[in-house]
Amino acid sequence: MPRTLLHATDQTLENCGGLLISIIILNWNGKEDTIGCLDSLEKVEYEAFKIFLVDNGSTDGSVQAIRKQFPHVEIIETGKNLGFAGGNNAALRKVLKSETDYIFLLNNDTVVKPGILRAFVERAKKEPLTVWGAKLYLYDLPDTLDHLGGIWDEKQAFFRLIGNRKRDDGSLFPEPIELDYICGAALFVPKKAFEEVGLLDERFFLIWEEADWCMRAKRAGFKMRLCPEAILFHKVSASFQGKAHHAYFSWRNRLLFIEKNFSGKTRRKYMKQILFREALVKYKHLQLRRITRRLGLVLRQDKPHRKEKIQKNRAILRGIRDYVFRRFGDAPKTLYKK
Questions:
Q1: What are the residues facing 151 on neighbouring strands?
Q2: What is the DSSP letter of 206?
Q3: Quick one: CA torsion of 82, 87, 90, 91, rounded to 10 degrees?
Q4: Do residues 149 and 163 make contact, with C-beta atoms less than 8 angstroms apart?
Q5: Does domain 5-234 bear CATH number 3.90.550.60?
Q6: CA dihedral in degrees (151, 242, 35, 105; nearest 10)?
Q7: Which residues contact 292 (CB under 8 A, 6 or more apart)?
Q8: Global confidence as pTM
Q9: 42-70: per-residue pLDDT in tens?
């Protein structure tokens, strides 16, 4: 029998420390990955949890397959792609009305180790006002970390990713570490935090939304920490349709993140750095290409990797323009072509 909150008894709750967990998984045309994730959750060494599967308008038969194989999973169908923020919010609005104690946002392209929920709970009981992240390893390179989250770098106006692609024999990060934001692939949050801080900002659509939420939570008095005993393996999201697609969201949403989380001289300094230093380099590169093509000098620019760089730079400038004109949400449809 599936071990979920639906079947929890008083004895089950007592064995689990009395804490109920709601797991939210977002799916968008990721049927095989999602089924793999759900399979791994069937083996966890914890019983008091319930799974909410949000389907963002999939067309690959995900809903039918999941409903047949995992009838105990509650499926929320949004009918269209609302992005990471919008999709998770659809479930959060429902979960926050329930009697759950913790909410676990989990990427569908992950496979968890059996002890992950118990590890979170043991840490959470000692520090109830802390948001916890897991130790994420790459699925194809299980001795290599993905990344754990980040620390804000004032000089770069960016997050310095902790553990990014580092080899680990199990000795790295043996104790909890403080972070400014936790990777959204695995975010274990007290219900109280979402109640006080609010939901994810849906303007981001993809990436930076969890960083923004974590910064808001820190200002509200919650800590961000790594739970080193909570382990999972990450296949790395298939949500992005190539480097240009990712670059668009990264640059547009970075500007929105800075706008929301900094003010005064600090905000102006970061905007100047991004718009008049970093972006100017991308613009000059595109202008130089136009000039060489007009002169008939089609040299190395037209090799595949050069074309990819050009497409990426165009996407960056489009992202900046859309930020300036307050065009948020999903990316332009042209960027969905790989």
A1: 160
A2: S
A3: 170
A4: no
A5: yes
A6: 30
A7: 298, 299, 301
A8: 0.90
A9: 999 999 999 999 999 999 999 999 999 99
